[in-house]
Design a protein that fits this description.
This protein is mostly helical. The protein is built from 17 helices and no strands.
Length: 479
């Protein structure tokens, strides 16, 4: 005889065949109980399910360590633009040349994204991380110590140094399918897209504080030290996890004896890379619009407030999306992101002049909630569709698309701000997300082959043996 149940509690039965409940069933039980008790407890049930999924995710060996150290290896990136801009402007008095130097860093990384991905897929990702970390730290240190009279060397130095920027993002994104499966795979991509927002909140704040207190040269040297420390930590995390060897070849992968075609010639992946380019273009465009709005009001202190609230919304939205069951629906998420930005247009000058930009914070938070879920869905779909032994290369192409999107969006949105005002800048950023939504209509979901596919039940990391079940479970609905 089973234990007695209290009134209103729904018992979750055992799995068919008498198998024990999946880990995280406690969270599901709370959801069902919340549904029984009424709509007031429904948010608590959702939160319980989200937390249960994340507990399962971070119970997978090495996932948490790899996530944390990959983020620390990238911590310098958002602050780098601030330090370099102030440093070069101090030398030359020109923001145009400072922007050129900052763009050279991004261009350098974009040029070698796929190449570094192929190197990681073939093994030795730990050595790749270490070499890039050491050379990048030397390059940015040399830039910080460059005499002002040699300012003209800054662009070629930035371009070469950017080639050795941290490859942590593409390496770790290529590793997640090797370490996780099912709901955990979608959750880890959402967790990474979410926690990455913390970098864009704290890295600029720390860098700006050092610039204000000790000058741009000291801030640039600090970022060099952080980049090296992050590379060492990620190098050690990769070795502890034992994932530095060549990527395993799964069933259905390309024949190694045949010439490989470029991944951008795979239609589904090419569409996803284009979506990434357009999405980050919208994000960068919105960042630029926030800066322009605060500058027009002569209130630069609003920049961090508005940007932080937008990032906080993305943080919350990504955390919730990572705990939802089922395969994410790209169309729904991309349309939600476009709608979130479009909602802001009527409240921006010259359409409407608010007494203070702070009045738009609630809408800005809601708009931000749609961004991390969209980026997580794009990354998850790339991880699903890329060949198992070329995933780091695929995310290298994604890194190139992100760099290109940011480089193209800044002047385009800037021109719309000059011609149409702040509302025009938001509208321009919205157009990028609307175009990404249009492309999402043509991205086919991967075929469901068993529990290793995203959205299907699982109770741990990806197994090494056969995974085909006796019966095919029905996947949960997407979101």
């Amino acid at each position: 005889m089973g234990p007695k149940r209290g009134p209103g509690t729904v018992r979750i039965p055992e799995d068919v065949g008498g198998h024990p409940r999946q880990p995280g069933a406690e969270g599901t039980n709370r959801v069902h109980t919340a549904q029984r008790h009424g709509p007031l407890l429904w948010p608590l049930g959702i939160m319980a399910r989200v937390l249960a999924n994340y507990r399962r995710l971070f119970g997978v060996p090495h996932v948490l360590s790899l996530l944390v150290w990959s983020l620390l290896a990238r911590f310098y990136m958002p602050g780098q633009m601030i330090a370099v801009t102030f440093l070069v402007e101090e030398w030359t008095g020109s923001y145009s040349y400072a922007g050129l130097v900052a763009g050279a860093f991004t261009l350098g990384m974009a040029l070698v994204g796929p190449l570094r991905g192929r190197m990681a897929d073939r093994g030795g990702s730990d050595r790749l991380v270490m070499v890039c970390g050491v050379v990048f730290a030397i390059g940015i240190t040399a830039l910080a110590l460059l005499p002002a009279s040699l300012w003209w060397l800054a662009v070629p130095m930035a371009l070469v140094t950017g080639v050795f920027g941290s490859p942590a993002n593409q390496i770790v994104r290529g590793l997640w399918p090797r370490l996780t499966r099912g709901p955990e795979r979608q959750a880890i991509y959402a967790a990474e897209a979410t926690t990455q927002e913390l970098l864009f909140v704290f890295s600029p704040v720390v860098t700006a504080a050092v610039v204000a207190s000790a000058g741009p040269r000291a801030a640039t040297l600090m970022l060099a030290a952080l980049a090296l420390a992050g590379a060492i930590g990620f190098f050690l995390a990769l070795r502890r996890a034992g994932v530095t060897g060549p990527a395993p070849v799964e069933e259905g992968a390309e024949d190694p004896g045949r010439a490989r075609r470029s991944l951008i010639r795979v239609p589904a992946l090419a569409l996803l890379f284009a979506m990434a380019l357009l999405t980050v273009g919208g994000v960068i465009g919105m960042d630029l619009t926030i800066v322009a709005w605060a500058n027009e009001l002569n209130t630069p202190q609003y920049v961090m407030v508005l940007a932080s609230v937008w990032a906080l919304g993305s943080l919350v939205g990504g955390a919730i999306a990572g705990g939802l069951p089922g395969r994410p629906r790209l169309v729904r998420r991309s349309l939600a992101a476009a709608a979130g930005l479009l909602l802001l247009v009527p409240f921006m000058p010259p359409v409407l002049h608010l007494p203070t930009p702070l009045l738009i914070l609630p809408l800005l938070f809601l708009s931000g909630m749609t961004l991390a879920p969209l980026l997580a869905a794009v990354m998850g779909r790339i991880g699903d569709l890329a060949p198992s032994d070329r995933r780091s290369e695929a995310f290298g192409w994604m890194a190139t698309a992100l760099g290109t999107g940011g480089a193209l969006a800044s002047p385009a949105v800037g021109a719309m701000i000059d011609g149409l005002g702040i509302a025009g800048g938001v509208a321009g950023a919205t157009l990028g997300l609307l175009a990404a939504s249009g492309l999402s209509l043509f991205v086919r979901p991967p075929a469901i082959r068993g529990p290793a596919e995203p959205g299907l039940p699982t109770d741990g990391p990806a197994p090494t043996g056969p995974t085909t079940p006796a019966t095919s479970p029905r996947p949960p609905q997407g979101h």
